[in-house]
Amino acid sequence: MAKDLRFTPKLFDFLRELKANNRKEWFDANKDRYLNDARDPMLAFIAAVRPRLNAISPFIVADPKPVGGSMLRIYRDLRFSKSKEPYKPMVAASFYHQMCKDGGAPGIYLHLDPDHRFLGLGIYQPDTVTRRKITDAIAAKPEAWGKAISSPSFRKLCKLEGESLSKLPKQYDPDHPFAEDLRRKDFIASAYFSERQVCAKDFIDKFDAVCQASNGLLEFLARAVGVKW
Question: d(Cα 117, Cα 157) in Å, to the nearest integer?
C-alpha cells in the first residue's frame, strides 16, 4: 500500500517543537521527523497540485524537487538574517510564474506553521515600475478589475490584503471607483486555514478552489505587467 503523504497533525507537532528547540543538535536528532512529517508531505502536495495549477495557467511552476524546486528551504540563510536561529519553523511552497521568478509576475504562495496557515495569490511588494503598470491598468480598466475581485467565489473564499500608500498618487482621479486600490503596494488575495483543514483529506480541493476563485485576479495582474497567462 502506498504511503499516505498528506499533511497530518505530526507536521504541526514537529514545527512547534522545532520552534522551541531551534538548534542543530535537536534538528539532527529529529531529522527523520522533518523528512517524514514535513518535507515529504509538502513535496507530495506540490506534485499532486501541479496538474490543477497548470489547468489554471501553464506558466505557473509547481516543481516537487527536494532542492531547487517549489518548496522553500527550512534552513535559514544566516548571512542575511537578524535571527541567528538556524531553521525556519515552517514549511512553505512558492508557485511562481515561469517568466518571472523574482516576483514581478503573479504567483501563488502556501505557508504552513502552527500560528499561520495561509495561501497568498498575486504580486507581493512589486517594484515601482511594476506597481505603476498594475495601477495604470486598474485606472484604465475599472470594469475588468472589478470583475476580477468581485465574483461570488472570490468574495467567499479570499480577500485582498496588504499595504497601501498613505496618499493616492497624483496622476489618478480621487473619484475613481477603485481609488483605494490605486493606493495599493501589494496586490495579494489571501485565504486562511485551520490546522484541521490543512490535515483533512480535501485540503487539496480547498487549495484548488481558492486558486480557481482568484484566477481572474491573477490573469488581470499578468496582463497588466505584460506576461502570458
Answer: 14
The residue assigned the cell 496538474 is 51
3-state secondary structure of 92: strand
Residues with Cβ within 8 Å of residue 116, at least 6 apart in sequence: 90
pLDDT in tens, 51-70: 999 999 999 999 999 999 99
The 3-state DSSP class for residue 44 equals helix
β-pair type (187-192, 159-161): antiparallel
Domains and CATH numbers, the chain: 9-225 (3.30.930.20)
CB-CB neighbours of 26 under 10 Å:
14
Largest CA distance in the chain: 63
Q: Is the pTM of this model over 0.85?
A: yes
The continuous run of DSSP H or E covering 129 comes out as: helix 128-140
